[in-house]
Amino acid sequence: MNRVLLARLIDLVIVLFGVSIIVFLMIRMIPGDAVAIMLGANTEITPERMAELNRRVGLDRPIIEQYLLWAGSALRGDFGTSLWTGRPVSTEILLHLWPTLELTFLSLLVGAVLAVPVGCLMAQTRGGAADVVMRVSAIAGLTIPSFWLGIVLILLLSSWAPGFASLGYVPFSEDPVGNLQRMVLPAFALALPILANLSRLVRSAMLDALGQDYVRTARAKGLPERRVVYKHALRNALIPFLTSVGIMTGYLLGGAIVVEQVFAIPGLGRLILGAIAERNYPLIQATILVVTAGFVFVNFLVDFLYIVVDPRVRA
């Protein structure tokens, strides 16, 4: 088991190294000049001013040297300073990190937790009316964009419950009720495609598990159907489910960028979009790297759970 985890950890480091190179190079390919944009917002643009600012932010050095300096500082937790605010990039990210983490966690919790009983019910009622209705609903959930669903939910809520706060963000530590009240709609809008996708996956895995010999043996012993389904069959059905949860987390991090704009949540999504508009290289690089690192780390945790659930992987 330790050998398998060590191999996964080495893969994680390699992936992060490759992502850091890709992010660093792609940011340099974005049209526009960050220095010209920054100077244009504050003072007259002259070659001397541009050269001075290029030297100060390190853009006048060879690109390999720029990457080595940036990567070395990033390993120490220093992502540089924002070109617009002058504050450390790590501070900017920490100020916007929690709303995105909370939205992603709530969406994943709603989608993953509900997908298991819904998928099991679909498998148990295969071919019945309940199965058909839930399968059609799952297909509809996959085709509805999260941002469109969010807009519709806001319009409906404004008509049915005008006093219900649905926009903005309040920290949970300051107002738990107000926080959850504002996170209900964006979490549901972001979780619906996850719920639809994972429930169909659980249904397919459960149908395969329910047809195995060990399930027939358990039924032959006279075990209750609920115990057969949720103890014997579900454990094997969760193996592909866990893998998909890791992939869905990446989807949630990407979808949160758009949903945060719809619901005016000050998370990493709004931070990234603002940094791109400003050509704020240090902030863009660090934010994308942090989001990618979070996605890779979640997949590492999924691999660990995969090993726990399926003993065959430990060999």
UniProtKB/TrEMBL annotation:
Q: Is the keyword Transport in the record?
A: yes
Q: Name one Pfam family in it.
A: BPD_transp_1
Q: How does it sit in the membrane?
A: Multi-pass membrane protein
Family, similarity comment? Belongs to the binding-protein-dependent transport system permease family.
**GO MF term (any one):** dipeptide transmembrane transporter activity
UniProt main location, coarse: membrane
Taxonomic lineage is: Bacteria, Pseudomonadati, Pseudomonadota, Alphaproteobacteria, Hyphomicrobiales
Q: In its UniProt entry, what is this protein called? A: ABC-type dipeptide/oligopeptide/nickel transport system, permease component
Record organism: Microvirga lotononidis
